[in-house]
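Please, structure for the following, as tokens.
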Amino acid sequence: MKKAKKWYDYLWIVSALYLILGFFNILFAWLGLICFFVPLAIAIISGNKAYCNRYCGRGQLFQLLGERLRLSRNRPVPRFLKQKWFRYGFLIFFLAMFLNMLFTTYLVAAGASSLREVVTLLWTFRLPWHFAASSAASVTPWVAQFAFGFYSVMLTSTVLGLITMALFKPRSWCVYCPMGTMTQGICQLRHRGEAK
């Protein structure tokens, strides 16, 4: 008998919509903060990875593309991606890129730098996003700068997830996802504290 679908089984639609809406209006990038704070809040409050296991729309999207649409080779994830040194190293790198984005936003807010209406992929390749930039003209420059930077982070992580989905198992991204690594660390610290 097929398991009945719950409301959270359709959160992949939210992930897909986020990418599409940000493509046409960069200010939608701010909604990505929900995917940043909710997993941390769930891990802190409940002490588990319920967000990763149940509510992560991105993981669901990769599952859908990889399994149902058969876009995944479904090969085992390389051992090094599961290693602690890689996962925490990638988290540190990702946080460094995030802090750099926040610093750039601060410089624009302080008037020390001008707005850079650019989306970068893999922190290197500039994408032609000028059609989405018109939405940034109606807001304070630092608000737009944060949107461009945050959308770049979200797009980069999605592309990395799509690459590993295609090469390995559908949810390979979940093995080294920075949010997953952070929530796991929070859960471990919480359980250690409870055990004392």
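The chain is about 65% helix and 5% strand. The first helix runs from residue 12 to 24.
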